[in-house]
Structures are given as structure tokens and as C-alpha cells.
From TrEMBL:
NCBIfam families in alphabetical order: PRK13505.1
Binding of ATP, residues: 60-67
Family annotation (Pfam families): FTHFS
Pathway: One-carbon metabolism; tetrahydrofolate interconversion
Record HAMAP family: FTHFS (MF_01543)
GO-annotated molecular function: formate-tetrahydrofolate ligase activity
Coiled-coil zones: none
Enzyme class per UniProt: ligase
Protein name in the entry: Formate--tetrahydrofolate ligase
InterPro entries: Formate_THF_ligase, Formate_THF_ligase_CS, P-loop_NTPase
Amino acid sequence: MLSDIEISTNAKLDKIINVAKRLNIDENDIELYGNFKAKITPKLQKSNSKLILVTATNPTPFGEGKTTTSIGLADALAMLDKSVCLALREPSLGPVFGIKGGAAGGGYSQIAPMQDLNLHFTGDFHAITSANNLISAIIDNSLFNGNPLDMSEILWRRCLDMNDRALRHITIGQGGKFDGVERKDGFDITAASEIMAVLCLASDLGDLKSRISNIIVALNSKKEPIYVRDLGCEDAVTILLKDAIKPNLFQTLQNTPCLIHGGPFANIAHGCNSIIATKTALNLADFVVTEAGFGSELGAQKFIDIKCKNADLKPDACVLVTTIRSIKYNGGVSKEQINEPNLEALSEGIKNLGGHIKNLSQTLNLNVVVALNKFSFDTPNEINFVREFCQNLGVKMAVCENFIKGGAGAIELANYVLDAINSPKDIKFSYEKSDDIRTKITKIATKIYGASEVIFEQDALNSLENIKKLGFEHFDVCVAKTQYSFSDDAKLLGRPTGFKFSVKDLEIRAGAGFIVAICGKIMLMPGLPAVPNALKMHIDTATGAISGLD
């Protein structure tokens, strides 16, 4: 079989101007970035179109194929003559050159050209990085010029869209008359920047500027917050983002339209594409397929409790993606034996799938359909075992082969989703807006993760007091924890319950309107693996052809 990049390179793509016409986008609302990608003017009116959320079980080293399934489902709906548009997140360069790879899907369920998507795209991430670091530069310039705002504790960190663990903790010098004076600082990955969050949650350019103004960057000597508006650079920061706030139009290999906008990483951010892109897609098509990052206990929970609350949205159906080998991995099978039939491990690991189904269908009250990504080594007995398990929990399971068949391999899934949409439900939230921050975190950890107790370490307790004093108890909560487990321990696989969940610290994101709970050993700046993808890539300097970018 051809590699992902070979499939993408050989695909017959339509010019993006024609893709726009199929969505009835006026040519005056399109800004072309070459032949195959464009920025479009947002459309934010209330819509009665159907929203389909795609999420997954906890990720494993093999990948479960959430984006691939999202694309296959959209292509399948298009093949059923439905008006459909994808609404996906943009990839980060960190995973592209690290271990996870790109975010264009795979096989014959890709968005294309995949090189364009995975390498810079339309520059949104660079604009967000520059906007973030402009604030840092203004802070340090103010310190250099006498610190008129009395900034005694700097909270704002720099960012970079690359996995670089050496930048987690750095020391910077002030220079000039402060030569020799040093200060501790550090970098987060761009997807974890609050600028990314406010871009994804903003309703328009005015709201974006307002949210930027409300970002807390430091505390003064009285422990009072200092905001971006106190620095006076909110307009300059917004100017850097005036184009980045517009959604990007792209297409699948089958020419299905796709809006790509906003950041990934539901383990350290809220991990959803932008509200503007989702609402625009709902204005352009009858059915919109979107996704939430990593496992449903992270991505789907944040999609419901943060994005849906902010945007007055609700999914009409929810697709839960899993694989046989993912289930067996959660049952304790080693990487070396993962492709061998093992019903005993399957019966143990399927508790992980069950936990996600129950969270989605009962706790969050969503219409759930399970999508099983099929591989050649999956046996009929294993597939039937998973199907019967799902049936016993009251949900349908579709076998998906869109990786090798394109949209035709997801027709069963598309039909199940259309059936689910016909049984509308009112979504439930994990917590109430009126709950205090401690209660919100406790409800997420106990109701969604399965913890018996939440331990707030001393830094977190101090932050809770500060949050209450500043009047931010009404904010939402964005938990930063490992994506590999329901718990805060990456090695605790399956469906653990009764564990103690540890909260190390809390960070205020006043512009985004949520509190980030730092839990377990999670880092906001990832590192590269021992052998990163960057070492496997090659470019033919005569033709410019790229290989290894899968």
C-alpha cells in the first residue's frame, strides 16, 4: 500500500475556489492561499444544522484514528448525498516532528495536501506564537524601564510550536542598566498558550480583543493581578491575530469541504477547534463533523463543559473511536504481541471502552455510536466480542475500513450516526456554573475519571484561596493531565476506579474564562522521543518531494 504522503500527493484535488462554491461561499468572502487552501469570512448566525462530535478511547502508542474516522465519516455522509462539512483542529509542528505524526488523517481518509497542513499551513500557529511572545517582550521592556506597574511576580510564559524540553525552565537576563540581573522564565508549547484558548473561544474580533485584555500576566507586590490591558498592548496583540481568527478552508481526498482552525492537545489545553469555525460550518452545511482531542474523558468533557457552554452548542450524535489493539493494550498486552488474537486480554481491556461509553451516554447524556477501526489482523471473534459488548450497553458499533476504502468504508457508521441523530437528547454538564472551583474539579475527577478522592497539594490550596479572593469561582475548569489513563497516572490503564487524584497547582486563564488544574506529572512543554520523526524525513532537493511526513 502507498504511504500517506504518496496517497495525498497522487490525489486529484479540486481547486479550493470550487470547494467554496459547493458551500455557497461568495467569492468576496474568500482569501486564497494558493490553489488548495483559503481563509474565509466567518458566518455566525444561529443554525439548525446537525453537529456530530468524534472522540476516542484513551490513546495508545499505535493511534486509534480519530481524525481518520472523522474524515471517513464526512466522506461517507457526502456519498449518501448529505450536505456535510468537517470542522477540525490544526496540527502542531511538535508532534509532526516528534512521535505522534501529523494531523491529516491517514490512508484514503485524509485532508489534503497533507504537506501544506502539517507544515505551517496558513501561519495561524506562528501568529499565535508571535502574539504570545509580544506580550512577553512588552513585560520585559516595562521591567527594563523602571517597572511602573510594580510587577513582582511574572506569570506569563513564552511559547514555541515545537517539542523542546530544554525550554521548560530557562533563565533570562534584563540587560542594560540591569545587566547581571536574571529572572526565571520558561516556554510552553503554542497549543497550551492562553492566546490559543482565547482565539478558539472568541466569538468575533471584538470578543478576541476583550479576552486578550483580560489575560493576567503578573502580580504586583500586593498580590493584585496585572492584566494585558494594563500593559497597553491589547490592540497590538489583536492586530497580529486579525487574519488568524478567520477559519481555513481545505478538502478531503474525496473533495469534501473541511474548515480547519484552532489548536490540539486536550491533555494540556481544551483541545477543540474554534467556536468560529464550528458555527461557520453549521451555517454552510446540514451536517458538521468535528472532533475533540485525545480520550473522551479529556476532549469530549472539555468540549461539553467549556466549548458548548461558551458557544451554546450541543452535539446531536457522538462517535467513540476505538481499535481491537487499543482494547488489548488496555488489557495488559505488550507491544510485541498486540497483533495476536487474545480474547482474555480483550475481555479485560474492554473495561476501558465501557468507561468511555458510560461517561458519554450516561454522565454527559450523548447519543453514542462506537466506531471500530478495523485492521487486517483483527479476527471475526474479536470483532463480534466488541460488538456484543457495545450492544449490551445499548449502543451500536460500526466496523470502519475507511483507511483503505475511503468514505465507502464508513457507510455503516454514517447510517448509524444518522439514526442516532433522530433521537435527540439534552446534554448534561459535569458540573454546575455555580459550583466553586474545588467542587468542579472534584466532580470531574469522581464522575468522569472514577477517582474516589481528590488531593489538593499546598500550591493548589494556595491558588484556590487566591481564585476565590479574585472572584473567579464562576470560571470553568480545564484539567491538564495524562491522556493515557482515566487517572493522573499514565501507567494506570484499563478502567481504574477508587484511586486518589492529585492536583499540583491551579493557573488562572482570565481571558479564556477557565482555570487550568495541573495534575500528576503533566508538562505544558513536551519533549521529543529518543528517535523523533524528524530523523526519518527526507527531501529530494531536485524535485522538492518529501517522504517520511506520515
